[in-house]
From TrEMBL:
Residues 1-21 are annotated as: Disordered. Catalyzes the methyl esterification of L-isoaspartyl residues in peptides and proteins that result from spontaneous decomposition of normal L-aspartyl and L-asparaginyl residues. It plays a role in the repair and/or degradation of damaged proteins. GO terms for biological process: methylation; protein repair. The lineage of its organism: Bacteria, Pseudomonadati, Pseudomonadota, Betaproteobacteria, Burkholderiales. The gene is pcm. Residues 1-11 have a biased composition (Polar residues). This is Protein-L-isoaspartate O-methyltransferase. It comes from Pollutimonas harenae. InterPro entries: PCMT, SAM-dependent_MTases_sf. The active site is at S115. Belongs to the methyltransferase superfamily. L-isoaspartyl/D-aspartyl protein methyltransferase family.
Length: 267
């Protein structure tokens, strides 16, 4: 049986150029319903070729991002440490690097986005609350940022991406950060999960479907947790814990806005 672990052979860590913006329905972001805090949907920006060298400043910017996440209620030190360690600016286009530590989703090409830092922190924290997951699955790797965060403290991270160009981008970025051995990336339709690798202690779905795929619920270990956005225009984060062989407990969390979960693959 072929290995489910994609290895790849090229090393083209470099920045692709993609213009385009991100719309309110395409942002992997939190939705604030009562207008107190802006939803942080970034303004559309044209692509620029300006080189933004964050250099040493990136550490300070990350520190500010972590302080903000704490204020927003994120408490899990494993998650905060992991997000402090991962250089988010290396996962976005050079023209957007200076905005990488804002609390905003940003375009990564192919009409997809890198999730808002708060959304990443919230999902990972909820999945890991009161447990130490050893094997997790991420559906929708995108540019690989959340996989890199998970790989900081989770032993076995499996991530699936359905768009070939993004799969390549994630692989190259994870490789250049020496994380590719810890994140097993698969190009494919993550709605089917990875039956050959299951059960998972945790599953994070980074794109919104009308319903959470049953295959993913079945691939959760008993006691494991899955977190996913659910809905079409109105979406919510749903936290599911598998309580027994045929029982799952469901909890609805915040309103969010994610890119759609789609079947099949895109070359
Ligand atoms: N996890 C990313 C978020 C990427 S956006 C981050 O760290 O920021 C969500 C991603 O889900 C997109 O790249 C999209 O192509 C992918 N996606 C949507 N449906 C999918 C499916 N069925 N299988 C795998 N990936 C999927």
């Amino acid at each position: 049986m072929p290995s489910p672990f994609a290895t790849g052979s090229t090393n083209r860590f470099g920045r692709s150029s993609f213009g385009g913006g991100v719309s309110a329905t395409n942002s992997n972001t939190r939705v604030i319903l009562h207008g107190k805090v802006p939803a942080n949907v970034p303004a559309v920006r044209s692509n620029t070729s300006t080189t933004v060298n964050l250099g040493l400043n990136s550490e300070r910017s990350r520190g500010m991002m972590i302080a903000r996440l704490r204020k927003q209620g994120i408490q899990d030190e494993r998650v905060l440490d992991a997000m402090m360690a991962v250089p988010r600016h290396l996962f976005v286009d050079e023209g957007l690097a200076s905005r990488a530590y804002e609390d905003a989703a940003l375009p990564i090409g192919y009409s997809q986005t890198i999730s808002q830092p708060w959304v990443v922190a919230r999902m990972v924290s909820a999945m890991c609350e009161n447990r130490v997951p050893v094997k997790v699955l991420e559906v929708g790797a995108g540019c690989g940022y959340q996989s890199a965060v998970l790989a900081q403290f989770i032993k076995e991270v499996h991530a699936v991406e359905r768009i070939r160009g993004l799969y390549d981008m994630a692989r190259d970025r994870l490789r250049s950060l020496k994380l590719i051995a810890r994140v097993r990336l698969t190009f494919g339709d993550g709605m089917a999960g990875l039956p050959g690798v299951a059960p998972f202690d945790g599953i994070i779905v980074a794109a919104a479907g009308i319903k959470i795929p049953q295959a993913l619920l079945e691939q959760l270990a008993i006691g494991g947790r899955l977190i996913a956005p659910e809905g079409s225009t109105a979406q919510r984060l749903i936290l599911i814990e598998r309580t027994g062989a045929t029982t799952w407990r469901r909890e609805e969390l915040e309103s969010v806005r994610f890119v759609p979960l789609k079947p099949g693959t895109q070359l």
